[in-house]
Structure formats: structure tokens, C-alpha cells
Design brief:
Layout (H helix, E strand, L loop, with lengths): L7 E3 L8 H10 L8 E3 L6 H11 L5 H6 L6 E2 L5 H4 L7 H11 L1
Parallel strand pairs: 1-2, 2-3
Length: 103
């Protein structure tokens, strides 16, 4: 959804949300560049991490890396925060360039 302006998803109060549904949500966001925050209920799944990384830092090509989400600064788990630090830079062109160089 490259043309949408979704900036926040908050599903913390949805206790029935299963990991496969959360994974599908992350899959659907792969082309979103405006999302800043994702809040999910506590779900124990390594696949969520595997779905989150390409959303933030897609290394399949330089173009994909450049098109990754550079706005996401919060994902409701503890381990993704170091990956999101670079996205906190106010100039998103600098963020994109850093990711391409690091690619």
C-alpha cells in the first residue's frame, strides 16, 4: 500500500490475535512507507521477527532497500528496537542512503 498514509496500528487489546494473522498483517505492510508504530498483543513467534526485518530493511535488492519503511520507530517487542534506531533520524533520505550503503 505505497499510496496509503497509515501511521499507527494498535491491536494490543485483541487477545485473540494469532501469530499467523499477525504475520499476514506484517506481510501486507511490506510496501508501506508511512507506518510509524505497530502495537500487537504479546505473541510468541520467531516468524514475526522474520516478517518485520524486510519491512524495515529489505535487502533483496538496492531498490527494495531504498523502498523499505524508514518511518517505523516502534514495534511492540523488545528485540526490534535496535533495528529501528536508524529510522529515528529526521531526514528519511539519510536513513534510506544509510540502509542502501549498509546493504
Amino acid at each position: 500500500c505505497p499510496d496509503c498514509s497509515l501511521v499507527r496500528i494498535d491491536l494490543r487489546n485483541n487477545s485473540r490475535l494469532q501469530s499467523d494473522t499477525a504475520e499476514k498483517i506484517l506481510d501486507s505492510l511490506q510496501n508501506n512507507s508511512t507506518l510509524k508504530e505497530i502495537y500487537l498483543p504479546e505473541i510468541r513467534s520467531n516468524n514475526l521477527w522474520e516478517k518485520l526485518v524486510p519491512l524495515i530493511f529489505n535487502t533483496t535488492s538496492i531498490t527494495a532497500t531504498y523502498a523499505s519503511n524508514h518511518s517505523l520507530v516502534y514495534f511492540g517487542d523488545g528485540k526490534s528496537q535496535p533495528l529501528l534506531v536508524v529510522n529515528k533520524h529526521p531526514d528519511k533520505k539519510v536513513v534510506a542512503a544509510f540502509k542502501v550503503i549498509d546493504h
